[in-house]
Design goal:
This protein is α/β, with parallel strands linked by helices. The chain has 14 helices and ten strands. The relative contact order is 0.17.
Length: 313
């Protein structure tokens, strides 16, 4: 994975992914004691950054293979992004989604014409199910994070952010499987070599935190955090070495801190952010990032949240 790969992805997805805005908040800055710049991927097509990687992947599939369709596995945002990308090129999409996926994400995926196959996240293997469907149909598997095309698409987020808010001291990104932070860290370090990159995980989904401490990929039991998009139990085979190389530190936030940050962003910035998307902002708001960071870029990765869940906050 190189920066030119991310540049190529930026050109490939330009007609399909939004150039999302960067927002600021004086109240947030005062409370967090930083100057924060929020890259609002919650306002992205499909409500999350995932459209970047999904579009780059689907449009990189050779034409002869593409007609057989695509299959993906996801708790929601990647599923919706793959459905959108497949619909745009007129090919069928099958999405393997957990039975407890947020209703809003499942409904949005169905609305894009995708076929949904549900599974029990605690007893069934979604990867195996996806591969089985691909073998039966000839479709191409579009993985959620552990592929160069996905990583390159995700990295376009950081290119835009550093154009919109240059000379940042640090970049703070959530970590699920690691695709977003991998692409963003490669791009950010190329464009601004001295930038510090911090990853953030929910305390109950700390597989990458434990993996960095162990020096190897560690698998944890299926996480139960409120941040449903960050429940990957193990870092990716491709993404983990990138995280090891470029990410200075991973910090953890609790579900209560995530809830408080969702409410803060809604009431102060007037933006709806899903729990997973609020994770990096929570780390900054609750001062988990080491001192010495003045201008900090925060990637708000998504905004798809069920109203019932939001009301429970």
């Amino acid at each position: 994975m190189t920066f030119p790969d991310i540049q190529a992805a930026a050109e490939r997805i330009r007609p399909f992914a939004q150039r999302t805005p960067v927002m600021t908040s004086r109240r947030f800055d005062a409370q967090a004691e930083v100057s924060a710049f929020f890259k609002c991927e919650n306002l992205q097509t499909g409500g999350a950054f995932k459209i970047r990687g999904a579009t780059n992947f689907v449009r990189s599939i050779p034409t002869g293979q593409l007609g057989r369709g695509v299959v993906a596995y996801s708790s929601g945002n990647h599923a919706q992004a793959v459905a959108i990308a497949a619909q745009a090129v007129g090919v069928p999409a099958t999405l393997v989604m957990p039975e407890d996926a947020p209703r809003s994400k499942a409904e949005a995926t169905k609305a894009r014409g995708a076929r949904i196959v549900t599974y029990d996240r605690f007893t069934q293997d979604r990867v195996a199910l996806g591969k089985q469907i691909a073998a039966e149909t000839g479709a191409t598997v579009v993985p959620p994070f552990d592929h160069p095309w996905i990583i390159a698409g995700a990295g376009t987020t950081a290119i835009e952010l550093l154009e919109q808010a240059p000379k940042l001291d640090a970049l703070v990104v959530c970590i699920g499987g690691g695709g977003l932070i991998s692409g963003c860290s490669i791009a950010a370090k190329h464009l601004q070599s001295g930038i510090r990159v911090f990853g953030v995980e929910p305390a109950d989904a700390n597989d990458t935190y434990l993996s960095l401490a162990a020096g190897k990929r560690v698998e944890i039991p299926q996480p139960a955090t409120i941040a449903d998009g960050l429940r990957s139990p193990m870092p990716g085979e491709i993404t983990f070495p990138i995280v090891q190389k470029y990410v200075e530190q991973i910090v953890l936030v609790t579900d209560d801190e995530i809830r408080a940050t969702v409410k803060f962003l809604l009431t102060r910035l007037k933006i709806l952010v899903e729990p997973s998307g609020a994770v990096p902002a929570a780390a900054v708001l609750f001062k988990k990032i080491p001192p010495g960071v003045g201008r900090v870029g925060i990637v708000i990765s998504g905004g798809n949240v069920d109203f019932e869940l939001l009301a429970s906050f």
